[in-house]
């Protein structure tokens, strides 16, 4: 995700190695929208307090649900042209709970759905 948002071309992100389905499409659409506004996002994202809340290995596509705290406080939105930071709402959540579904593909596990929970962690 960091590479996808930092590079308007998205060529080096290779997000399809980590995400698929709804999660991949959503990330690509959101990053394109950001880039279309002349913005890039730089910095680091971190996950903490990850907990597997559900596992189903018996179905046709093995999957698991994971809850974690996504911290984007070190992500900085800047103008792609000037590299100057842009102002963002003061009250935005920068560390929030996210629930993700991962599925086992032949190439490995992929995030297929991400659902921010709208609450701080």
Describe the structure.
A 4-stranded antiparallel β-sheet has the order 1-2-3-4. It is of the alpha+beta class. It is globular, with a radius of gyration of 15 Å. The chain has 2 helices and 4 strands.
Which descriptors would you attach to this protein?
about 120 residues; alpha+beta; four-stranded antiparallel sheet; about 50% strand
Integer-rounded radius of gyration: 15 Å
How are the strands of the biggest sheet laid out side by side?
1-2-3-4
Overall geometry comes to: globular
Helical fraction:
10-25%
Span of the ends, CA to CA: 20 Å
What's the tally of helices? 2
Number of strands: 4
Major β-sheet profile: 4 strands, antiparallel
- Tell me the β content: over 45%
What are the low-pLDDT stretches, counting only 5+ consecutive residues below 50?
none
Task: Give the topology, please.
Elements: H1 2-6, H2 21-36, E1 39-56, E2 63-79, E3 95-105, E4 108-120
Antiparallel strand pairs: 1-2, 2-3, 3-4
């Amino acid at each position: 995700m960091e590479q996808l948002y930092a590079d308007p071309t998205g060529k080096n992100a290779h997000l399809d190695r980590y995400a698929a389905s709804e999660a991949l499409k959503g990330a690509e659409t959101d990053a394109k929208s950001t880039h279309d506004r002349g913005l890039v996002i730089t910095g680091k994202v971190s996950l903490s307090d990850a907990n597997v809340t559900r596992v189903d290995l018996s179905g046709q596509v093995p999957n698991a649900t994971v809850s974690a705290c996504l911290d984007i406080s070190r992500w900085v939105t800047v103008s792609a042209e000037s590299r100057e930071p842009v102002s963002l709402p003061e009250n935005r959540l920068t560390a929030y709970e996210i629930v993700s579904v991962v599925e086992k593909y032949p190439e490995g596990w992929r995030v297929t759905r991400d659902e921010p929970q709208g609450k701080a962690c």
